[in-house]
Design a protein that fits this description.
Helix content: 25-40%
Strand order of the largest sheet: 6-5-14
Distance between the termini: 21 Å
């Protein structure tokens, strides 16, 4: 009975981990530029003394789904979306460089250009800072232009250029903070071929229907594994009572 309980317990634990990953994707279904985590159950032999006769199903991450999300027209001048392949460079919380598809940009009170989650956007010389202005425009090559405060429209000046990159997807990985980084820890080089669309925002690539179906399936699977543990416990109790009655 202990083997049955162990297998049921192990299966329930792995199902909970798979449910957590699926719930994380579902919770970010409306997050701009979010890339879904891929996961699946894989066989893992039970190692130890004796014959290798048992195999557990283990929930494993299979990387990131880099499929583009749907484009949503917002009309907001500071909303930008990468057209095709490419990424926007931002400063990660640890101070390093990371990459995102979230183009919901905004300015802080100090004039720093950040994403909707507060990550500073990186330009040619580091994090982008925009001086006081009457009008701001972001070109399709990432160039940031402004009309300085109190100046005429003809006095348009270039402030900086957003760093846009397009490395091989096989060289990129997703961190726990949701940002994408180079797997080797280095910084990707700027790619002049990457283009932005203004007034457009890329949504999450999470398929809500698929995630909901997975959530239901995993919940039923968890219930089955818990019932298996309960049945093993009941069988053990019945066996103990039978032995006591025959003693």
């Amino acid at each position: 009975m202990d083997r049955m309980i162990y297998l049921g317990m192990t299966g329930a634990k792995q199902t909970m981990q798979a449910q957590a990953a699926n719930s994380h994707n579902l919770a970010n279904a409306n997050t701009a530029g979010f890339r879904a985590d891929l996961h699946a159950f894989a066989p893992e032999p039970v190692r130890g003394p004796g014959y290798a006769s048992r195999v557990n199903a283990v929930s494993r991450g299979l990387g990131v789904d880099f499929t583009p999300g749907t484009m949503q027209t917002t009309g907001r001048e500071m909303d930008v979306a990468v057209q095709g392949q490419g990424w926007i460079a931002v400063q990660a919380p640890d101070g390093g460089e990371a990459y995102t598809r979230a183009g919901d940009l905004r300015l802080t009170a100090n004039g720093n250009l950040v994403t909707g989650t507060g990550h500073p956007v990186i330009g040619d010389g580091g994090p982008v800072a925009v001086p006081p202005h009457d009008k701001m425009m972001i070109g399709n090559d990432g160039t940031i232009s402004i009309v300085p405060q109190g100046q005429e429209a003809q006095a348009m000046a270039v402030v900086d250029r957003i760093k846009l990159v397009n490395p091989d997807l096989e060289q990129m990985e997703k961190g726990m903070d949701g940002l994408i980084r180079m797997a080797d820890g280095l910084e990707a080089e700027a790619d002049a071929g990457v283009r932005l669309a203004s007034g457009v925002l890329e949504g999450s690539n999470v398929n809500i229907t698929t995630a909901m179906v997975n959530m239901i399936q995993l919940a039923r699977q968890y219930e089955t594994q818990v019932k298996m543990i309960q049945n093993a416990d009941e069988n053990a109790r019945s066996a103990s009572q039978l032995l006591r009655s025959q003693a």
